[in-house]
Fold this sequence. Notes:
Keywords: Membrane, Transmembrane, Transmembrane helix
InterPro entries: DUF6534 (IPR045339)
Number of helices: 5
Transmembrane segments: 26-47, 67-92, 104-133
Protein name: DUF6534 domain-containing protein
Pfam families: DUF6534
Amino acid sequence: MVTGVISLIVHLFLAFRIRNLNRAPIWTYVACAVAIVSLFPFAIAIVTTWRINTGGKFLTDVGELRWMAIAGDVSTSALDVFIATTLTYQLYHGRTSLKSTQKAITTITVFVISSGAVTALINTATLISYLAATNKLVFQLFNACSSKAYVNTLMATLNLRETVLHQINPSNGPGNTNFQSIVFRHTNMNSTETDETIPVPSKNHDIPLV
């Protein structure tokens, strides 16, 4: 049940990130689809917990819950792979000609792929161990690791922002909220160029941060 709650929170958070990376209507639909699908393994976790508590037996002793365990692991793994693929696609098409921005996008992309692969592999290992030894508790070892992997994904995603901001602008230290200036040139009535400086927060850049 704990793993189901944690995975739901992380999947909803990542769906929110998908929506923020690109506000085109298609990605809004994709984010909504991810949010809806993420409710499926959560519902399975609730039903499984309720059935075990009311039946007084463990998951390995309730044969009718076998398909629920399989469906939960398969759907969660597929969702992790889909989210990682979607974010990677969005980041790839969000590249710019700025080297600092390209480096930041590469950093985020590597993180997205690795975190998605880790959670998907753990869920796959949980499924395989459950099918290989249904009457054993080996699968609980991977199930326990799954919740920790999701928490690490969420925390690392939030902590990654400072690293990416520093790559885009090395003068930005942790917690630095100083303003930078962007200079725009325009021509006045006398055809003389003047500079107009507009202060912009240092944490606003040309790419959304995951």
